[in-house]
Amino acid sequence: MALERKTHLSKVKRVVIKIGSSLLTNPKKKAIQATFLTHLAAQIKTLQQKNIQCVIVTSGAIAAGFYKLGLKERPKEIAQLQALAAIGQSQLMHSYEKTFKRSGLNVAQLLLTWEDLSHRNRYSNAHNTLIELFKNKVIPVVNENDTVAVEEIKFGNNDTLGVLVTHLCAADLLVVLTDTNGLYDEDPRLNPKAKLISDVDSLNPNIEKNATSTRSAVGTGGMKTKVQAAKSMMQSGIPMVIANGKTKNVLTKILGSEKVGTFFYPSSSKMNSRKRWLAWGVKPRGEIRVDEGAQKAICEKDKSLLPGGIQAVVGNWSVGEVVKVVGMDNQEIAKGIVNYSSEDLKLIKGLKTEQIAEKLGRKSADEVIHRDNLVKTESF
């Protein structure tokens, strides 16, 4: 396994580093953890000198606002959290700017919501911005735009954001830094004899079950969201590491192929950018329910979705939007870009392709979703 880890890590030219609130904040001093940022900047400087481009996905804006106002517990109302984010975001970025400048590094702030990534043009614009920053050796610092995010467009946690940013910038590795050494076979807080799992080449139900969703006073994640992130990364063909951010030189050790943290091995085939965007970067506008024949055609034969196999249309969408395809057991089996609106699809569902023009007075395509615009998600 150690040799295989080295094989994957030796190819890394671009890495996304996700940092949890527990590493960035100091509950006793109620402030941003300057010492951690200093060590982080030094490690990124070393990686940059080795021509490895770095992106930071940061938490901490709400926590910074939380501490600045001297609150005793995290608010639950969205408006209050948005206000804390507005207060804390500038303080957080000032800490990055000031600390990284000492290491001769420049940083840039990117604030995203899921809505930004759901639109292909905006997704491409964000990608192009990141590429320009890399060309100028500037470190992008990405966070969710908590000041405007509501439930419908929230990522939910920054582990999910880490996955999406890895896809967005076409990175070769996602490193999730937390306050534990990695993934254990049991919760180490409940069982001191729990064993660290150094390498994961497949996620079995026990691993997913043992991952807890416990969060800190200022964070929103937990090991459960990290394992879910790892599952997405493995399926997309990109490796991921969960490691303790307090370990000395943790990033240089990981990129040096040392056995640090938990390494999640990618699948043998890497998804292309468009397929990754369809699978994880966009929230579907509705769903198409299909019969057994259509389900087999998509899942087993990699075929396009035709109107004849459609049983029901749920939701409202326009041509060119993304919808999910649901199989016989009401489980999602795919996502794709539709060639017909929901209203038109209600009229042509169950019909043969040669009947489309007769029913609608026109025909955009034989396929409701072409296989080139379809990604299978039944194993996700």
Describe, in plain words, how this protein is organized in 3D.
With 380 residues, the chain is of the alpha/beta class. It folds into 2 domains: 2-275, Carbamate kinase, CATH 3.40.1160; 284-376, Archaeosine Trna-guanine Transglycosylase, Chain: A, domain 4. Helix content is 39%, strand content 19%. The protein is built from 15 helices and 15 strands. The chain has helices spanning 2-9, 21-24, 34-49, 61-68, 78-102, 114-118, 120-135, 158-168, 205-210, 223-236, 250-255, 273-281, 292-299, 342-348, 356-360, and strands at residues 14-19, 25-26, 31-32, 53-58, 106-112, 138-144, 173-178, 199-200, 240-244, 262-264, 286-290, 310-315, 322-326, 332-337, 374-376. The strands form 3 sheets. It has an 8-stranded mixed beta sheet, sandwiched between helices. The protein has a 5-stranded mixed beta sheet with strand order 12-11-13-14-15, sandwiched between helices. Strand 2 (25-26) and strand 3 form a beta hairpin. Helix 3 packs across helix 5, helix 4 crosses helix 5 (78-102) and helix 8 packs antiparallel against helix 12. It is globular and about 70 Å long.
